[in-house]
Amino acid sequence: MSRETGRLTILHVSDVHVTRSGRLYGSVDGAARLCAAADWVRQTGVTPEAVVVTGDLVERGNGDAYAIVQDALDELERAAGVPVLTVLGNHDDPEAARMLRGHGSGHARVVLVDDLRFLLLDSSRGDLGEEQIAWVRRALREPHGSGTVVALHHPPVASPMPTLARAGLRDADALLDALDGSDVRAVLAGHFHHPMSATLRGIPVSVGPSLAYHQVMDAGPDRVSGHDSAMFSLVHLLAGGVAATSVSLRSPDPLFTSQIA
Length: 261
Prior knowledge:
Belongs to the cyclic nucleotide phosphodiesterase class-III family. InterPro entries: Calcineurin-like_PHP, CNP_phosphodiesterase-III, Metallo-depent_PP-like. This is 3',5'-cyclic adenosine monophosphate phosphodiesterase CpdA. The structure is a single chain. Helix 3 (129-139) runs parallel beside helix 4. 19% of the residues lie in helices and 25% in strands. It has 4 helices and 13 strands. The protein is α/β, with parallel strands linked by helices. Strands 4-5-6-7-9-8 form a 6-stranded mixed beta sheet, with no helix packed on it. It has one domain: Purple Acid Phosphatase, chain A, domain 2 (4-Layer Sandwich).
């Protein structure tokens, strides 16, 4: 594990949009991209503490694709050698997704990985709701080990893109109130299809890019558009904060290669 380097690493994947057949927009094979991320882990030797996938596992209307998703997640778990933890997004089907590992009895849950605690939340409706917020408060009542990481689909912060400015978590303030004063070290989210970082109430928030497509950031004030660019993040929990690095699955020819002693 990366613990030996003095940092805890989370491989953060989001917005996969797997379809049961064919390719999303004629190009995107979400399951194959999960397997490509697994190959990246093997080739680089990165040793995360956990893999977290923050929702939109399938494209809307493809609830029968979760078996395909689970097979690809299993491949990623074998490559990383650590648990793959998933939450649901607005494209996901809460009933069909119960066949995914860890989701049989509910989509909001606590998972302990060594001495890290993960709070996996269900924002598939666009909000968490009073009942889930109360559950978060209870779960965080006592600190745990090296701290807690919260994962959900909708970020508790607005995107800078005009078309996505209101697409964040609807009850963000209620969530932040529940996290205030707790041992939460980071919040991981997705949904925007572009990377973003923020610090809210002193808590680092890392919005991961999408494995399916990346937002065209200059598409205009009244439209959304996507590049065929598959990306994910490495999130490092450091002694004094959090660092996040976006990684592209594209591998252009290198300009140079040097041996590092």
